[in-house]
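Researcher: Sequence recovery benchmark, item below. Answer with residues only.
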C-alpha cells in the first residue's frame, strides 16, 4: 500500500485523539467544500446517462475539445497502462507515487527522472508522465516545454501524460485545449479544487479516438448519477470558481508567510499547499501530530532530505492552532 494524505483514522488510532479533535492538513484538498445541490431521488434510482450535461459543462470549464468522466483521476492512472504494450516509462519525480506504481505493476520499465534529466532520456521513452503543477513540490512547467516533449514522443507513437490535478488556479498553464493531439493525455481531478474528494470524480482529456478505447477499458456507469449531477452544478458555478481561486491563493500565500516567520520558508507549493524540505521533518511531523495537527511527510529521500506538505487551514481557529504549534516547536528547539 502506498502512503497518502488524509488517513485520519490511522492517526486517531496511533495518537489516541478523537477524530473531531484533529486539524487535518495532510491532503492538498481545498478546506472549503462546495455546497451540495439538491439531488432528486430519481438520480439514485436510475442508471446514469451520458447526455445529462456533465460532459458539456466539463468541456466548457476545462476548455477541452473532448473528455471522459471517470471515478476520480486515480481510475485513469490505473487504467492507462493497460492500453499499451510493455515499454519504458519516465516519471518526472518526485511526484504522486501512484503514477510510477501503476506502470510498474503492469510490467513497464519505469525510470523516475528529475526535470533536468528529461532531455537526456526522452528519446528512449515510450511514455513520459508529468504532474503539473507538481505534487508535492509545486513545480509548474510551461505549456511550450511540455508540448516540445510531447512532439518528440508522438513522432514515434509515444504518450505524454500530464496530471493537472492542481491546475484549477492556473488555467493558463493547462494543456487542455491541445488534447486533440494524438498521444497527449491530460488528467484532471475534480475533488481537490472543489473540496469534494469523497465524490470520486475526475476527467481524462484526450483525442476522441483514444477516449473511446479508454471508455471500453473502464466500462459503463463508472460515475454515479448523483455524482454527475453534483459535478455539473459545481462546474457551472462561475462565480463560485472566482471566489474559490481568490481564497485558496490568499490562504496559500498566508501559509507560506507563516512558515517562513517560524524559520521554515517553503521550497515550493501551489494554491492548495506549501512544501517544505527540512531535516526536522520527522520531528516536526510528530510534534504536530501529538497536538492533533496532521501533516503529510515524505521520507523517501532519507532523513536529511525529508519534506512536509502543509494543506490550507480553513478558518481563524485553524490558523491560530497551527501558529501555536509552530511557535512551541521553535521555542523547544531554541
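Model:
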Amino acid at each position: 500500500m502506498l502512503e497518502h494524505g488524509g488517513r485520519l483514522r490511522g492517526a486517531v488510532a496511533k495518537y489516541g485523539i478523537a477524530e473531531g479533535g484533529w486539524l487535518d492538513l495532510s491532503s492538498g484538498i481545498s478546506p472549503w467544500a462546495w455546497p451540495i445541490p439538491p439531488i432528486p431521488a430519481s438520480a439514485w434510482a436510475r442508471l446514469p446517462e451520458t447526455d445529462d450535461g456533465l460532459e458539456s459543462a466539463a468541456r466548457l470549464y476545462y476548455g477541452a475539445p473532448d473528455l471522459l468522466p471517470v471515478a476520480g483521476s486515480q481510475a485513469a492512472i490505473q487504467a492507462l497502462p493497460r492500453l499499451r504494450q510493455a515499454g519504458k516509462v519516465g516519471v518526472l519525480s518526485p511526484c504522486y507515487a501512484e503514477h510510477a506504481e501503476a506502470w510498474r505493476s503492469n510490467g513497464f520499465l519505469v525510470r523516475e527522472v528529475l526535470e533536468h534529466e528529461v532531455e537526456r532520456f526522452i528519446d528512449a521513452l515510450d511514455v513520459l508522465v508529468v504532474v503539473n503543477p507538481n505534487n508535492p513540490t509545486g513545480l509548474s512547467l510551461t505549456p511550450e516545454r511540455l508540448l516540445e516533449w510531447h512532439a518528440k514522443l508522438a513522432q514515434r507513437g509515444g504518450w505524454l501524460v500530464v496530471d493537472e490535478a492542481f491546475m484549477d488556479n492556473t488555467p493558463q498553464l493547462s494543456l487542455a485545449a491541445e488534447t486533440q493531439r494524438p498521444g497527449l493525455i491530460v488528467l484532471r481531478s475534480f475533488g481537490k479544487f472543489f473540496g469534494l474528494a469523497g465524490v470520486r470524480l475526475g476527467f481524462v482529456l484526450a483525442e476522441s479516438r483514444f477516449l473511446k478505447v479508454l471508455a471500453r477499458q473502464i466500462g459503463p456507469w463508472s460515475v454515479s448519477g448523483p455524482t454527475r449531477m453534483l459535478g455539473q452544478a459545481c462546474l457551472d458555478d462561475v462565480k463560485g470558481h472566482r471566489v474559490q481561486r481568490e481564497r485558496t491563493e490568499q490562504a496559500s500565500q498566508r501559509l507560506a508567510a507563516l512558515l517562513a516567520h517560524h524559520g521554515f520558508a517553503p521550497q515550493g507549493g501551489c494554491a492548495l499547499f506549501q512544501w517544505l524540505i527540512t531535516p526536522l521533518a520527522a520531528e516536526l511531523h510528530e510534534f504536530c501530530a501529538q497536538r492533533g495537527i496532521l501533516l503529510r511527510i515524505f521520507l523517501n529521500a532519507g532523513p536529511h532530505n525529508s519534506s512536509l506538505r502543509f494543506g490550507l487551514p480553513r478558518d481563524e481557529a485553524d490558523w491560530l492552532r497551527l501558529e501555536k504549534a509552530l511557535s512551541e516547536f521553535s521555542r523547544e528547539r531554541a
